[in-house]
Structure to design on (124 residues):
């Protein structure tokens, strides 16, 4: 009682394809949600500086500090006139600070002639 096989059994093929579809859809969801960084104030690589830089701190309320001493926004150019233009400037900005204020501060510092302006971050 031999029977000739004249059809292909597609049920196992459909089962494998459904499992592969579930795997692809699950990993695609994880990949698309992982592309948006949430905490921009942290970094894995942090440069070590040997010299003592000028530290300018910008708080989330908009307060400005030069080397831990509070200064008004308008006094920043006069406070930096005594500093060498070759000095490195480190901007410590709170992560809740508006980007517009941060960019305006960096533009003002670079406009005063400082070329080495960097952002201080927290190592992960």
């Amino acid at each position: 009682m031999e029977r000739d096989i004249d059809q292909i059994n597609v049920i196992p093929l459909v089962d494998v394809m459904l499992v592969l579809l579930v795997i692809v859809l699950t990993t695609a969801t994880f990949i698309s949600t992982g592309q948006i960084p949430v905490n921009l104030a942290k970094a894995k690589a942090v440069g070590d500086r040997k010299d003592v830089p000028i530290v300018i701190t910008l708080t989330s309320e908009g307060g400005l500090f030069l080397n831990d001493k509070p200064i008004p926004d308008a006094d920043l150019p006069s406070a930096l006139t005594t500093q060498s233009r070759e000095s490195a400037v480190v901007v410590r900005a709170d992560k809740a600070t508006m980007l517009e204020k941060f960019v305006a501060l960096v533009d003002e510092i670079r406009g005063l002639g400082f070329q080495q302006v960097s952002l201080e971050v927290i190592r992960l």
